[in-house]
Structures are given as structure tokens and as C-alpha cells.
Design brief:
- This protein is α/β, with parallel strands linked by helices and 304 residues long.
- The chain has three domains: 145 residues, 3-Layer(aba) Sandwich (Rossmann fold), CATH 3.40.50; 35 residues, no CATH class; 99 residues.
- 48% of the residues lie in helices and 12% in strands.
- α10 crosses α11 and α10 crosses α12.
């Protein structure tokens, strides 16, 4: 599975995943060096989507491990199928056959693959997406070191299982906690920020092509201004921008105005406090003023 940098860039464009040169280059190097890629950034900037798009570009299987507090090896690596093992023992007793040997019980036929083991044993190089790794416990993060360094796992009953094909590994983090130096050392690092207005317009046009050019620009501009405001508890993600654009297209709108923004506010601001802040501290008149100024001025973050 090889891909050139121009082919990777074209793949991103074909998938509608808009990224800059640095992002494409870092992803390309992680593929060439066969190193895990750690992507950090705010929620909703396209970290998880990167793993999905890579699997599509490389035409391979996406294996996803969703991290959470309390995640352990039995959920991430493997688990023995104890019900089948007990059934085998019971069947032997019923048929009055000799007692099952331990080696027979702890064999691959009774092993239930979880995402990490599935990725290591895949016949073709898969994309392993370890999503929101910052949510797992430090102990589990340390457990990942063996997988990310040597692409192998140790199972006491079976020994060491090495990867048939080194998977493409993408780890994502929302920066909820600081990751260890050991994990970072094993990865190439990429930070994804919210896109510029120009890039978000390109994203809107790629994902919601029915959006009028002016509407796409106004939508991206208002969202960008909202993100700059430090008093918002949850900044709008790219996915919420796209939902907003789709809703505006469904309403047959070609332009934004203050009232329309206020009426559809729940599509981009997802907490009651943020909606109240918009209505009391920003308001429809300020939105109208900014939209009339076009691309040359206006900043919601200055409105108090």
C-alpha cells in the first residue's frame, strides 16, 4: 500500500476534506515512515474524520477504538470466550470424553478479537483509529506503548503476536488531559485548528454544493466570528457549520440576516447559555451590521 504526496492531496480533495500543505505532508510522512499519527485540537476540527478519510483514500478497512475512562485490555485487545470454553468442557463430560487440555481451551478459536488485536492480525494494512485517547486512563495509555512501538501484543496464554501488516494508526485527542511524553515520542504530531473563513467556504461548497456562494461566505464568516468569542462555552464545529448550511439550503435561502441567524441559532450554538449570550450580548442588529460590512470588517468578539 503506497501512495505519493500528490495522490494523497488529490484523495483529500476528492473526499471533500480540505486541509493545508502542512497537514497533507505530515500525514504523508506518517504513512511513509509507518509511524502513528497523533492529532490534537478542539472538538469538531476534523480529527476523527481524518481516520475515516484515510481509510477511504487507501481503500482499506477502518478499525476504530473509542477511548473512555476505565477502558482496559479486555475491551481494547482481546477477551477469552468463556461461554464457549465452558460449553466445550461440558460437551466432553456429556460424551464421556477425556478432559479438555488447557492448551486446547486457550487457543485462537476461543479468542475474541478487539480493535487492537484485529488491526494487528489484519491480512491487509488497515487504518486503526484510536479516538479520544486523552479520555482513557494513564495506565491504558502506557499499555499502548508496546502496540505503537513494536506493533505487537503479548497474550500470556499464546505468547507474542506480531503485526502481519503494520497498520496506519491515527490517534486523536481533545486535550482534556496532557498525554505522556512516551506516547508522543512514538508518534508524529499534528495540531488541527478551526479552518480559516476561506477554507471553511471550500468545505461548505464541497460538502453542501447547493449552497449559494454568498451564503457559504456569510455562513463561514459568522461561524468564524462566533468561535473567536471567549465567552462561548462550546464553539461551533465544522459539522455544525455544515448542518447550518444544509438547513439554510432547505429553507431556500441565499443570504443571511440577523433574524435568520437568530431563528436558526440552535443549529450552531448547542447550549442554552451560549444562545442566551448571543441574544443578550450580540443580537440581530450586530449580525446585520457585520454582514453589511462584507469581508472588510466587523468582529463579534468586540461586541459586549
Amino acid at each position: 500500500m503506497t501512495i505519493s504526496l500528490p495522490e494523497l492531496k488529490q484523495g483529500f480533495n476528492d473526499a471533500g476534506y480540505i486541509c493545508n500543505e502542512n497537514t497533507a505532508l505530515t500525514v504523508y510522512l506518517s504513512l511513509e515512515l509507518k509511524k502513528p499519527l497523533l492529532i490534537e485540537g478542539a472538538p469538531g476540527v476534523g480529527k476523527t474524520e481524518m481516520g475515516k478519510v484515510l481509510a477511504s483514500i487507501l481503500n482499506t478497512e477502518l478499525i476504530r477504538l473509542q477511548c473512555y475512562e476505565g477502558l482496559d485490555e479486555t475491551k481494547a485487545l482481546y477477551e477469552w470466550n468463556y461461554q464457549r470454553q465452558l460449553l466445550r468442557i461440558q460437551m466432553n463430560r456429556n460424551l464421556e470424553q477425556e478432559q479438555v487440555k488447557e492448551d486446547d481451551l486457550f487457543s485462537t478459536q476461543y479468542l475474541m478479537e478487539r480493535p487492537l488485536l484485529k488491526a494487528i492480525q489484519a491480512e491487509e494494512r488497515p487504518v486503526l483509529l484510536i479516538d479520544e485517547v486523552d479520555k482513557c486512563d494513564p495506565e491504558f495509555e502506557a499499555f499502548l506503548f508496546e502496540v505503537l512501538s513494536d506493533f505487537q501484543v503479548s497474550i500470556p496464554e499464546l505468547g507474542t503476536i506480531r503485526a502481519k501488516n503494520i497498520p496506519v494508526v491515527v490517534l486523536t485527542s481533545n486535550n482534556e488531559r496532557e498525554l505522556s511524553d512516551g506516547l508522543k515520542r512514538r508518534c508524529l504530531y499534528l495540531y488541527l485548528d478551526f479552518p480559516s473563513v476561506e477554507d471553511e467556504v471550500r468545505i461548505i461548497k464541497a460538502k453542501v454544493p447547493a449552497t449559494a456562494d454568498l451564503l457559504a461566505w456569510e455562513t463561514a464568516r459568522i461561524v468564524a466570528q462566533l468561535r473567536q468569542h471567549g465567552d462561548l462555552r462550546k464553539k461551533p464545529s465544522i459539522a455544525e457549520t455544515l448542518d447550518w448550511a444544509r438547513a439554510l439550503v432547505a429553507l431556500n435561502r441565499n443570504r443571511l440576516n440577523g433574524k435568520l441567524v437568530s431563528d436558526t441559532l440552535n443549529l450552531v450554538l448547542k447550549t442554552r447559555a451560549d444562545q442566551a449570550f448571543f441574544k443578550h450580548e450580540i443580537g440581530t442588529e450586530e449580525i446585520d451590521r457585520i454582514l453589511k460590512q462584507g469581508s472588510s470588517g466587523g468582529d463579534i468578539s468586540q461586541c459586549r
